[in-house]
Write a structure and sequence with these properties.
Structural class: mainly alpha
Shape: elongated
Order of helices and strands: HHHHHHHHHHHH
Number of strands: 0
Oligomer: single chain
Strand content: under 5%
Radius of gyration: 24 Å
Number of helices: 12
Largest sheet: none
């Protein structure tokens, strides 16, 4: 994979990185919430999130995409280098969390069943020591969830600063618009800061870029929806009115 090709695909990688991050946060947080509530996690879900070398999961694709983005960034931002490390950390820490979940799910019940059998003194002592280690697994999982949540939170703070250079990326704008509910659920109270960091005092630009991308792709109804959002933000903006004129002309044509 040549560096020139990666840089040519940079807008797509930026969009994919942001998409993978939002999806990863949503799915990991669902597992952590379950663990907080009753100590359970879905091992198969974690396995799917990670995947394998031959069938990469969401977190693996996010890690690889982060390498493409941050290690081939023509601007070489320091914040990007920290994000590259942080996203890799999430991937590797989730591997540990998955392995601990496997121990807890499969071996803890097995140990309890075996302990009901007859053991002599030495065997009982050794088994008790094994139990001590196994009981520490849940403590390890708690520390792992805390670390992953902390890193994800810091990524949510750093990403907006990194993405401000890509305020003209139509693919990124289209994703934020199309998956707005997910983006808001991931960033929560930091959502407005995300939009301001990328688009400054013109939040309508996100909707206009999304509308342009959708319109050029032939998704006119969705483009009209994005335009309506832009009009709500700034009905007097020149770029908004220009896009409105194009959409209005299209609507008149389909009626005739």
């Amino acid at each position: 994979m040549s560096k020139a090709w990666i840089q040519a695909k940079h807008p797509e990688f930026i969009r994919d990185l942001f998409k993978f991050f939002c999806q990863s946060c949503e799915q990991l947080e669902a597992q952590f919430d379950s663990f907080d509530e009753d100590g359970s996690v879905e091992f198969e879900t974690l396995q799917d999130l990670l995947g394998s070398e031959m069938d990469k999961g969401l977190l693996w694709r996010m890690k690889d995409t982060a390498h493409h983005v941050f290690r081939n960034d023509p601007h070489s931002q320091l914040g990007g280098q920290f994000l590259d490390w942080a996203i890799g950390y999430i991937f590797h820490e989730t591997i540990k969390f998955k392995e601990d979940a496997y121990q807890k799910q499969n071996y803890a019940p097995w140990f309890h069943k075996l302990s009901e059998g007859e053991l002599d003194g030495s065997e009982k002592e050794i088994t008790g020591q094994f139990f001590q280690i196994l009981n520490q697994t849940e403590e390890s999982m708690r520390r792992e969830t805390d670390r992953i949540r902390f890193i994800m939170a810091k990524c949510r703070q750093l990403l907006p600063y990194y993405l401000r250079r890509y305020s003209d990326n139509v693919l990124l704008a289209r994703y934020i618009f199309s998956e707005n509910a997910m983006v808001k659920s991931v960033f929560k109270e930091e959502y407005d800061g995300l939009i301001f960091a990328i688009y400054g005092p013109q939040p309508e630009r996100m909707f206009i870029l999304a509308s342009q991308s959708l319109r050029l792709g032939g998704w006119m109804e969705e483009a009209s929806e994005a335009l309506e959002k832009a009009l709500e933000k700034n009905p007097t903006s020149k770029i908004v009115l220009q896009e409105k004129k194009i959409i209005d002309n299209w609507q008149r044509r389909i009626k005739t």
